[in-house]
Every structure is written in structure tokens, then in C-alpha cells.
């Protein structure tokens, strides 16, 4: 599943719903990085990183929450890296 693609994410959760089982927890663990100085980074690289690290988490949470709200329970965990709280040379996004 490509976490950047809303249709693929929604289809994955649609499959989970089709099993008739409860979904207890979801962890968003996908992440990407491309090392470069910010002034050397292409827009394509920027979009790749942001679409996986931010949009992918949002799309996953959005689909998971739809199920959790219907069930009345569920847990969502977004996993980040050390780079999300500590800047490092060469990591522009």
C-alpha cells in the first residue's frame, strides 16, 4: 500500500472492515528522508518526503478514525524518528 494514495489507504481499511472483526489499534510507521541542503533539494524530493511523512499519517489516521468512531473505541499511534525532534545537517524536510 502506498500511504500517499488516499484510494489505496481507504481500500486497505475497507478490507479490514469487510472481515467483520474489530480494529483495536493502528500504527503509522512509514517514513522517508533524502539528505541534502535545503537550497539544493528539489521540489520533487520535498513532495516525496512530505507526502509520506505527513500526508501518509493523515490519510491513515483519517481511515482508522472512521472505523474507531463506529466501534466506539480504538487507538492510533504515529511513529516518528529522532529527526522529528532533533535537527541534523542535511535533513531539510
TrEMBL record:
Tree of life domain: Bacteria
Could you confirm whether the keyword Repressor appears in this record? no
List the GO molecular function terms.
oxidoreductase activity, acting on NAD(P)H, oxygen as acceptor
Matching entries from Pfam families are given as: adh_short
**Per UniProt, which keywords does this protein have?**
Oxidoreductase
* PROSITE patterns, per database record: PROKAR_LIPOPROTEIN
What does the similarity note say?
Belongs to the short-chain dehydrogenases/reductases (SDR) family.
Recorded protein name is Short chain dehydrogenase
Q: Which organism is it from?
A: Pseudomonas kilonensis
Q: What is the lineage of its organism?
A: Bacteria, Pseudomonadati, Pseudomonadota, Gammaproteobacteria, Pseudomonadales
